[in-house]
Amino acid sequence: MDKRIIFLICIFLQTIFSSSAITVEPNDSIQKDTTIFNQLFNLFEEHEGDNIPEAQRSKRKQVDALLKAIMEQPGQLRFSGVATASVQTGLNHSTPYYGVGSFDIFAFTSFGKHALLFFDLEAIGGNGPDAQIQNVSVLNADAGRTTSVDGIDRITILEAWTQFKALKDIFTVTVGKIDLTNYYDNNLHANDETSQFLTGVFVNNPVLPLYFNSPGINFRTAFLSRFYIQYGRAMADNNEIDLIKNHTQFLETGFRLFPETGWQANFRVMGFEHPFARSSYGFGISFDQLFANTFTIFGRYGQNENELSAFHGIHKAWSTGIGFKQPLFKREFNVGMGYAETFENEKIKPERAGEAYNSHQLNKWVFFSIHLQWLKRQEVEPDEHFFGGLRLNFNY
After folding, report:
1. Which of 220, 228, 293, 332 could form a disulfide with 262 if both were Cys (CB 3.0 to 4.6 A apart)?
2. Is the pTM of this model over 0.85?
């Protein structure tokens, strides 16, 4: 069967799942339907309070909410997590069905209202299409095996840090094994590969010279819940024995307009340098805007100096997109579309990428999305690819 037909069948099935959300409360005198069909869809029956906004269920926002809650219950060790499974296949070329699965277990505890400890344990299986199709846009940002050379699956410590807050949370220090992309180049509508776009260029700016999590420290100060400035640095070489040598450094400032409203807007400007590129630097900007709590727009731009461009392989990049979110039959319904161009070092024409996704909430913990991706490469054959993908996201 043609892959495009299979993909249309999946879209049809998703529509069935969505329409199954229209339910009528049965009268006590009416016999409950026990057919296999209805039992299947009752697994995703909506209950009061089940709806979780997309901005809160993303991996990063979920962690933020959990950390805020644990501060109120010091001394308790809590666990939570996210699991994601996705499958992708080419629509215009014969390609395999690429499968990727990942899960994160979050462990956290607090030591009073101003100190906490956090761990993120992660395991991933599958490299996605990027293992066979050379590109810089990254077709699956969640991919990347944690399997060892002997074929044994491993759980890695993705993050392990402690955080201290002072002066009524105006000043925050985070130190340990950190992921700098959790603090820099944030974007409310294009920043999480487990709940938003699959394509990596819509998760973080590709000009950033960050390749792994490493020991580091981040300082942040905020004013009036609207303005902030932060500085962070992390080791650029995980094999370096001297903790204070060869650090990638970041500096960012930003402000928020109309916070906690349906018109919230965020603007960020950052600069960074890498020690292995003779401390040459790059910069980036990021913004997102919500309209009437329903429509969204976002954008990014970044550029590296020539030496950092030669080291990292990316000279400049930009991306933009729109979104729509609305409760549908008491469940979350999201649509997102994005377009990006990435200019590699010493190449005139950019690599282009686009993605559209449609995400549905099945119940409080399970979300299902369909993705259409387009990739236009330069100076290689075949130069154009279309992909269809499905993703399941579980919060626990």
Report:
1. 293
2. no
